[in-house]
Amino acid sequence: MKILITGICGFVGSSLAAWFRQQPGVDRIVGLDSLLRPGSERNVEVLRRAGIDVIRGDVRCATDFEALPRVDWVIDAAANPCVLAGLSDVSGSRQLLEHNLLGSINVLEFCRRHGAGFVLLSTSRVYSISALAGLPLIVQDGAFVLDEGRHLPEGVSSLGVNEGFPTAAPISLYGSTKLASEVLALEYGSAFGFPVWIDRCGVMAGAGQFGTAGQGIFSYWIHAYAARKSLQYIGFDGQGHQSRDALHPLDLATLLWKQMNYQGVPPTRLFTVGGGGVMSLNQLSAWCAKRLGEHAVAINAIPRPYDIPWLALDSSLSESTFDWKKTKTIDFILNEILDHARQYPDWLDLAGGAIRGGA
Ligand SMILES: NC(=O)c1ccc[n+]([C@@H]2O[C@H](COP(=O)([O-])OP(=O)(O)OC[C@H]3O[C@@H](n4cnc5c(N)ncnc54)[C@H](O)[C@@H]3O)[C@@H](O)[C@H]2O)c1
């Protein structure tokens, strides 16, 4: 099997590439990356040493695909992945659309030309912000949790938000680029007869992630805590009760592998994929304090655009369809990040900058 990964030098793309390289029957992995993300350049040599071809190119540019070899599958992991993307002059709305939507269209055209399968790394941010904000929640042990004693709307259960949850706008500009890419992917797959899988991933986390306050929060928090950088609980009364689950990229890799090798007619092509545990920022600070000592977190009760109090994803459809199981618990993920933070105390300075504009 030959695989192309766009955004291969990013956190998820590089982790997937390294794992796929080890799988029997994978004879070539090629990656395309513009190295837009600060820190992504660090992965070029690491991937090349692992026998992976890394080509510098931009998914916005159709001709950058002309030199790429024919492959069996493309994993589309190139994007500006920040929920606040598109709101500032540094990373404006049109540029976001070009990276995330035009980029995916160019990948789909490539798949059409070569009959390659397409995997879209979509996001839980396709779900309606007002519907998420309206979920019945209570505070328990310093975290928002779902109030299961009250009526839960369609698409959410004690297991989390599932594929049936509403996607009505507003969902963030970022989320809308992914939702539009999902529709186009399903349409291209159906019109041109190539397989498509869409995975709406929740928060991804693990060692080597280029975390910022706006994206990659688990990594950012632990690195910032360890380096005694300033941290803030933003919005929700400044208590840090906002909670998320965390998915490790190697758990995603085993799911994608099952999808790319799937034989038969699946019940759907679209899945929500969440992690193995839910934690609030408040709980994350307590976790850090036990291992790194106390470090004060400031309170900033002013809400952040597009923020939501609670989000955990129900992966049961992926689990039953592909006989897939997550193996990385949230504790495993946090410890992995902590080890990395100890090894690279200046990681946030090296890699944590905002996505560069232009280029
Ligand atoms: N990290 C998460 O929590 C998360 C959650 C859900 C979905 N996703 C999706 O997973 C994918 C990978 O995310 P990540 O966390 O690895 O992000 P990342 O920023 O670490 O990696 C993205 C990579 O894409 C590259 N890139 C960006 N624009 C490009 C362009 N126009 N052409 C070529 N390369 C370009 C960047 O240089 C970077 O190496 C994204 O599509 C993201 O939307 C991520």
How does this model look, in words?
The structure is a single chain. With 359 residues, the chain is of the alpha/beta class. The chain has a single domain (2-210, 246-277, 312-327), classed as Rossmann fold (3-Layer(aba) Sandwich), CATH 3.40.50. Helix content is 35%, strand content 17%. It contains eleven helices and 16 strands. The chain has a seven-stranded parallel β-sheet, sandwiched between helices. A hairpin with a 2-residue loop joins strand 6 and strand 7 (143-146). Helix 3 runs parallel beside helix 5 (173-192) and helix 6 crosses helix 10 (330-343). The two termini are 32 Å apart. The model is unreliable at 355-359 (pLDDT under 50). Residues 6-7, 9-13, 32-37, 40, 58-60, 77-81, 99, 103, 121, 123, 201, 203-204, 210, 216 line the site of nicotinamide-adenine-dinucleotide. Nicotinamide-adenine-dinucleotide is lined by residues 6-7, 9-13, 32-37, 40, 58-60, 77-81, 99, 103, 121, 123, 201, 203-204, 210, 216.
